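A note from the maintainers: we've had questions about how concatenated examples are separated. There is no special marker in the raw files; a new sequence line simply starts the next protein. For clarity in this README we add a label.
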Amino acid sequence: MSDPYESTEHHLDSLLRRALNSFELPDSTVDRLGTALAHSSSLHSSHHSAVLHRETHRHTYLLTDGSALSLWELVYSEGRDVSAPPRHEVYDEEGDARVAASRLAGSFDDSPLFGDEGAPEAPGELEMLTILMSAPPSVLPRTYSPDNSADHARRVLRRAENADRPGEPTARLLRAAFAHHITQIFGRQCDVDGRSAGFTLYEHAFLLLDGSETSLWEVEHTATPDGRHMCEVYEDEQTARAAMESRARIC
C-alpha cells in the first residue's frame, strides 16, 4: 500500500537506491519516470516458506503525458537468517520479474536440512550430470510478446559473465527483435562437491523483423566459490548444457 505522505519523487528515489539492479533499467524508462506526478503501490504476489520469503510489488506512476508506467519490485530474504536485511530488485517488465522470482524458487532449498529426519538423499555425481544433460521436457507452443524485445535482448547479453558469451554479431542481429518469449527449460537444486548449488536454464526466444527466429540460452547458477548467483549466456542449448556440466564438475 502506498504511503499517502510520501512524495512520488522520494518514493522513486528510494526504490532505485535500494534495488541491486536498478542500473539495468533502460535509460528511456528512467527518463520517463522523471516526469512522474503521482504513484501507487500494491502487493502483486508473495511466497513464504521455511527458507524463503519473497514478495513482488507493483509500483505504478502517472506521468505528465497522461500515461502510466509500472515497475515491478522483487523483495526476498533467506528465511532461516531472519537478521539479514531483505534484498531488492526492480524490473520494468512483469515477465522479467517472474523469471527472477522463479530463479529464487530454484535457488533456495525447501527440503529439510542435512541430517533432518525425512531429508531426501542427494543425487550422486553421475545422476546429477545425467539430469543436467538430459533432454528438456516438451513445452507448450511458443507465444511471442512484442514488448521492448530488442532492449530485453540487450539486457540479457549485458548481464552475462562468461568470457565466451555471444559477441557483437549476435547483439547486432537482436537489435531487429520486435517480440520475445521466455521459457524456463530446466531448474534443479543439486549437491555439488558437498555444497548445495542451483542450476536454471532459460531460453529467450526472439522473433525478428524479417520473420526469422533466434534464441539466447541463459544459465543461472550458484556453483561459485562464494555461492553467489552467476549468469552465463550462450547461443545454443547444447553449449549451455555443456557449461552446466562443466560447472558441476569443477565446483
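[label: protein 2]
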Amino acid sequence: MDDARRVTISLPTQPPTGQQPTGQPSGAQPSGARRPAARRPAARPPDASLVDLGPIAQLRAGRLGRRLPQLYIGLVLYGVSLALMIRGRLGLAPWDVLHVGLTHHIPLTVGQILTVVAFVVLIAWIPLRERPGLGTLSNAVVLGLATDATLALLDSPGDLAARVALTAGGIALCALATAMYIGAQLGRGPRDGLMTGLHRRTGWSIRLVRTGIEVAVLLLGLALGGSAGLGTVAFALAIGPLTQAMLPFWTVRLDTNQTSPSQTSPSQAGGTS
C-alpha cells in the first residue's frame, strides 16, 4: 500500500473577478467592508396646534399680518352664516334660537340682541377667571353688525329648495368661519369661553358642559318664541365634524417661544361663538 501523503491546498481568499463567494448573495458587500451611513429622513416641521395664551401673549405670538385679517373675515362670515339660517326658516343653532326668541320681547334687532347676550355672557367669565382677548371682544361686536347687515340685504325665499340651500349654506359657512376665527388664536368667543371656563372649574367633560349649555339655551329660546327645526338638528350633527375638518387648514402656527410654558396648554375648539 502506498504511503499516505498529506496534501495542503491553499484556497484563494478573494474570488476571481466577476464571481461571488459561495453563500453570499449577489450585490452584497464582502464581510468587513464599511457600509455607507444610512440616510436620515428629513425632519418634518411640527404641525400647527391651538394654544391657550393670555391676551398680551396672543398679540406677542407673531404673524398678526395674517391672523388679524383672518379673525375679522371669519367673524363677518359667521354673522353672514347666521343670517342665512334665519332666512332659511328651517331651524337655527341653539344660541340663535335664544337670540331670535329674545327679539319677540325686546325691541332690538337680532344683531343687537346677539351683542347684548355676548356681553352678558362675558360677565359670567369673571367668577370663572376667563380672560378675554382681542378676538373675544371683536366677536361680541362684529357678529351682530354682520348679521344685521346681511339680514337687511337678504329676503327669505318662499321656495323650499331655496330655503334648504340657505340653511345648508349657512351651516357650511358657519363651520368655515369658526375654523378661521378660532385658528387665528386671538381669543375664544364669549360662549366658547363660558364652556371652557365651566369645564375647568367643575372638572366636567367639554362634551357634557357644552351639551348642558346648549340644551338650556335651546329650551329657553323655544319658550321665548324662537324657531327650531330640521336646521337645528342638521347644525348639531354637522358643525362639529365640518369645523374639525377645516380647522387644520386655518390654524396659524404661533411663536410661543416668547411666552412662558405655563401660559401654553391645549385649547378646545368649539362650534359656538
